[in-house]
Amino acid sequence: MPVCEVSMSDLEKLIGRRLDVETIEEALPKLKCEVEGFEGEVVVYEATHDRPDLFSAEGLARALKGLLQIEVGLREFKWREHMIAYNEGPSYRPYVLLATVHGLRLDDEAVKQMMQLQEKLHATYGRGRKKVSIGIYDLSKVEPPIRYVEADPDAVRFRPLDFDEEMSLREILKRHPKGQQYGHLIAGEERYPLLVDSRGTVLSMPPIINSEDTRVTEETRDVLIDVTATDARAGAEVLTVVATSLAERGEWIGLVRVKGRERDYVLELDPRSSELEVSLVERLAGLKVTAEEAAQYLRMMRFGAAPKGAVVSVLIPAYRLDILHPVDLVEEVVMGYGYENLVPEVPPPQHAGREDPMERFSRKLREIAAGLGFQEVNNYMLTNKEVLYTRMNAPELPTVELANPRQETFTCLRTWLIPQLIQVLSRSKHAEYPQRIFECGDVALIDESEDNMVREERRLALAISDAKVTLTDIHAVVDALMRLLGLSYSLASEEHPSFISGRCASIIVEGVKVGIMGEIHPQVLVNWGLEKPVVAAEISLTALMALGRKRAPRQLRGQKL
What we know:
Number of helices: 16
Helix content: 25-40%
CATH topology of the largest domain: BirA Bifunctional Protein, domain 2
Strand content: 25-35%
Distance between the termini: 34 Å
Oligomer: single chain
CATH architecture of the largest domain: 2-Layer Sandwich
CATH superfamily of the largest domain: Bira Bifunctional Protein, Domain 2
Largest sheet: 10 strands, mixed
Number of strands: 27
CATH class of the largest domain: Alpha Beta
Shape: globular
């Protein structure tokens, strides 16, 4: 989780009152921040990754004002549409979003906090600037409208941050420290992203470096913020956090309408509406409160809240990216009430617990896979159809989809494991070969016979990538697994578009198909950018367990796993 540093004097200036160490030590844990210590007048704390609004002094001060009841309720920002920009950027980094903040009062510490906020957002939401990158500029040195374009890396020159000489875009990747650190994000492309103003002045080369000519200093009063991204929602969320944080030191936010090839983008700062049933607080947290009390605690956490009978109408600030469900609002009520005020209750006597048989079986399979030289990976159950089907050349199965996905990368639950193993291999091409990885995890399948229409199934998937790997290699692994489990099995030829025809087989145990194995089709390798062959297998542990209930595998019978 991000470790942040904030000056006590800067916090006091933003909050408008004196603070002592004890107040900070008591208040920050209520915001799920862990105080790591004090270095002089600087407080060092660890913020949770889902609260990017607390990555700098501005957002922290805003939250503390509520907890200390200096200023409660929804923080209302002044904003208006301010200018137009144009998106003509590269398809590999297709999104740009902009905003301005006006009337800033900056000093050295404020500039440091601005840089810290950028750094922490780059490391978390930005995935090391690959997904999202941020630039902040002195608006007085910029002539609108702004254009996001793609440029010849040898034809355009500008003076990068902290350098006195002009360089070409390609030279910056080789010579500038930031170019060396992040150059791999664009180095293989024919044309590089560039942000320019109406005079053709270069503002930055996203996601690498800004221009020295537009540097933000203590004299800066108005700033331009740009966010370039591969995911529009993530870019908008990051811009919201940065703009609302800087607005704590300024007067108003300027919205920039970005005209793109397909649609316009403009920052949305309106709060989201939700409702909280007070009974949910007692049911989930054991805390009995009235609607008026729940609204009071939510206002302390900087939400707009109004009681209406047994329900609280809630306005969620745009910068609160972590609020996804009424359950999150229950947590906010408890935080406003104070975890330290909750009275613990001794639970009634319970029967002794025991490990679930499937977990024992899965642990045994993990040990076997590791013993066969495989390294375990863990992927999210949430993924998207491009990963599951499009890149795998696989037919689309009935899939559990999210009604309101927050990111394009997480839109549905996985129906098989092999695609995410291939995805891991595609991101590990720089690592030493052979690469042998496995995952033991759950998939979700549509099943109308189930009460909730969904059946979860535990599976084991294995993949090997190497220059000369063949079906024989993965067959040997499956054979070893089955022998160690004491199971007899057979293979049957199968045609599957993700595998090479004639190099794919079903795994049969006692007449039941429990898995599949084969050589991944060359087109699938091309889709994932893989250069070496891959073989893979996927086995249903749920199916094996069902067979085991009828006839326990010899190797597992009588063992305490």
